Amino acid sequence: MSRDIWDPLTYAVYADERSRPFIELISRVGAVDPDYVVDAGCGSGELTADLATRWPRATVEGFDSSPAMITKARGLGTSVRFAVADAETWRPDRPVDVIVSNALLQWVPDHRSVLEHWMESLAAGGWLAFQVPGNYDAPSHVAIRELCASRTWSDKLGGYQRLAEVDDALGYCDLLYQGGTQVDAWETTYVHVLKGENPVLDWVSGTALRPILDRLDHGDQRRFKSDLGELLAQAYPAKSYGTPFPFRRVFVVAQK
User: Fold this and answer.
1) Per-residue DSSP letters for 90-153?
2) pLDDT one-digit tens code per residue, 141-151
3) So what's the pLDDT on residue 210?
4) How far is CA 200 from the centre of its chain?
5) Which of 167, 174, 79, 176 has its CA nearest to residue 127?
6) Model confidence, pTM
7) Whole-angstrom Cα distance, residue 225 to residue 250?
8) Rounded to whole angstroms, how far apart are CA atoms 82 and 62?
């Protein structure tokens, strides 16, 4: 893309909700004393720093395609080495003991090939752990696709494929369960209770909408978000305690 679409401040609005899947994912990784750990799609780096805390003797690296995210990560003052890199072209210079990827692969069109390469990059006994949103058919994403295809927006956004479709837990088992690999795969639907006037719009503004908004000027961005906000408010009505936002995620932990 022509410019960095990611805004660390917008993404961090729901940091607690976004970090919970990462914590639950790495809790299933059984590595005891790894030498080399990589966080693929590390974002702003706070969760990558948790890996360095868990495995203090390891060399921990994080990479992300967003220069803005990496700039923020480098400002954390941790021992982690951060770099700008793309998941499809990243290649480690030695076998990796643990590769972690949190909500990255849905942005990678050929992510199944990337997963196969990552498995090849693991040391014997190494671990691959990743999670991806499984909400492609959720009302929020249906609303985004339908709005892009509407008469008002189709000239600028029609036919835009925003995310790669991900597999379910069984699909990733079929892909990775080979050659002695052990796979632990599961799915979880979180019901996040969000606060604010239109919190689901705020949520997707930090993730799903980023590449769409990047294609629009500032005036169109405001109009698109206004149109989408009306649809999301209908799809996710506010309750007395907040706005419940179901969010399905797919988790996979594989040991080579």
Assistant:
1) ---SS-EEEEEEES-GGG-TTHHHHHHHHHHHEEEEEEEEEEEE--TTSHHHHHHHHHHTSTTT
2) 999 999 999 99
3) 83
4) 17
5) 176
6) 0.89
7) 28
8) 5
